[in-house]
Design goal:
mainly alpha, Arp2/3 complex 21 kDa subunit ARPC3, globular
């Protein structure tokens, strides 16, 4: 029994390791760079969205969930340069990479209805995981003034802190994630097949 468990674990980790091909490793800094540019642009323009997961979703489409998770995690470590609070959201970006990658492997980015559904699933992932961080770590306030103002509006209407943060998250994330998903799909499909990692044959 112990031997079979050990073999299963080795098989699991070897499958993960097999995703990290040379092309996959090259894609990680590309994805991080795209996320950094998107996140920085939003910060400069003071937009209520994020645009810091486009690269993560793109890597998920091209290289699978585990490479995308590392891309998401690395992104938030890099974005600390422009916003130190983003380190708290690193697990959220990693989880988005995982979810996007597993959806991609199951063909959820091949048709437009499924692309929209994938965007909504990724949106819910972001909202559910980030809401406790916003409330428990930052007291409902985020580094985005417009998002904090929206949360304050819902609080003023009598909503609880949890309800206000969650509602704000849904409003902001549904726009952000649908936009991010469609941009990532467009970019991934624009890449010639000969340059795509083998994993992309299952996802696009």
């Amino acid at each position: 029994m112990a031997d079979s468990t050990s073999q299963a674990e080795r098989g699991f980790f070897s499958r993960i390791a097999s995703d990290f091909t040379t092309r996959a490793w090259v894609l990680i800094p590309v994805g991080v760079g795209i996320n950094f540019v998107g996140g920085t642009l939003v910060k400069v323009l003071n937009l209520p969205i994020f645009l810091d997961t486009i690269g993560t979703i793109l890597v998920a489409l091209l290289a699978g969930p585990w490479v995308a998770a590392l891309t998401g995690l690395t992104t938030n470590l890099v974005l600390v340069v422009s916003d130190p609070t983003l380190i708290a959201y690193a697990p959220v970006n990693a989880a988005i990479g995982l979810i996007a990658g597993f959806l991609a492997l199951r063909g959820w980015f091949k048709t437009y209805p499924k692309i929209v559904a994938s965007g909504l699933i990724i949106m819910l992932t972001g909202v559910i995981l980030s809401a406790p961080i916003v409330v428990l770590v930052f007291g409902g306030v985020t580094s985005s003034p417009s998002r904090s103002a929206l949360t304050a509006f819902f609080l003023a209407t009598g909503s609880t802190i949890w309800g206000s943060v969650f509602t704000t998250g849904v409003i902001v994330e549904v726009v952000d994630k649908l936009l991010s998903v469609f941009v990532a799909v467009f970019v991934a499909r624009a890449i010639p097949e000969r340059y795509r990692p083998q994993k992309a044959q299952q996802t696009l």
